[in-house]
Amino acid sequence: APFYYRAKIIYQTTWDRGPFSRVMREAPDDATAWCDRLRREGFTHVLVDTAMLDRWQLDEWLALFTDDAVYHVPTVGTAPDVTPDNTLFYIADDRPRLHERVLRLQKKSAHVEWPRSRTRHMVTNVLVDAREDGDTEVSAAFSVHRFKNGAADVYVGSYRYRLTVLDGQLRIREKRCMLDMDALRPHGRVSIIL
User: Fold this and answer.
1) Which DSSP state fits 55?
2) Residue of 171, 155, 158 whose CA lies nearest to 127
3) DSSP, residue by residue, 71-96
4) Using CA atoms, how far apart are residues 18 and 194, in angstroms rounded to an integer?
5) CA gyration radius for the chain?
6) Smallest Cα–Cα separation from 11: which of 126, 162, 135, 123?
7) I need a labelling partner for 120 at 20 to 30 A (CA). Which of 128, 149, 154, 187 fits?
8) Residue 86 contacts by C-beta under 8 Å, 6 or more apart in sequence?
């Protein structure tokens, strides 16, 4: 017999007004409370907006990160819990370095991304995984398509976000992009923001 999912599916993006925002306003500094409340109300998925990256709204995207945020892209084939202290990473940015990356990508002197690539971020299988120290961990699968100079590259993998609430706003404390590819061939680089 085929498998049917009969439960009502409810979803909310993290920056929309609606049930998600309402629950966050009711307990602005208690991620445990709003996560539990959302689950009781039937929410099991949280979508983190990547459309800003596709539109090259890099300043707005950067504003979603906390001051102590990190953005990590470990090398292919590494374990999910590795750190830049013990493993080579393609990208291991703290907030100041991420800010510099955004500034650099917006300049014509960033030759690898001028003219800019066109990208399309596709995110699926988004799940609220756990809560720890007032933060909420969210995981998702991604496929990022990059188009430039007649070539199309695809980056496939999984995201791991650590989200927190600051001043009543949901912010990104950590974004980790685990690539599922065997190698970075044929593209050979990660010049876009995954």
Assistant:
1) T
2) 158
3) EEEEPTT--TT--TTTS-EEEEEEHH
4) 27
5) 18
6) 126
7) 128
8) none
Asked if residues 139 and 160 have their Cβ atoms less than 8 Å apart, the reply is yes
Q: DSSP state, 13?
A: E
Contact 127, 140 (CB under 8 A): yes
Q: Tens-of-pLDDT digits for all 194 residues of the chain?
A: 444 444 555 555 555 556 666 777 787 777 667 777 777 766 655 565 688 888 898 999 999 899 999 999 999 989 888 999 999 999 999 999 999 999 999 998 888 888 899 999 999 888 877 777 778 888 899 999 999 889 899 999 999 999 888 876 778 999 999 999 888 777 667 888 88
* Cα 70–chain centre separation: 11
| Helix, strand or coil, per DSSP, at residue 153 | strand
**In the sheet that 89-94 helps form, which strands lie side by side, from edge to edge?**
89-94, 65-74, 169-179, 151-166, 135-148, 118-132
Residue 177 tokens, joined: 């992009």
- The helix-helix angle for 31-40 and 19-26 (nearest 10°) equals 140
Instruction: Tokens for 9, please give them.
Output: 């599916």
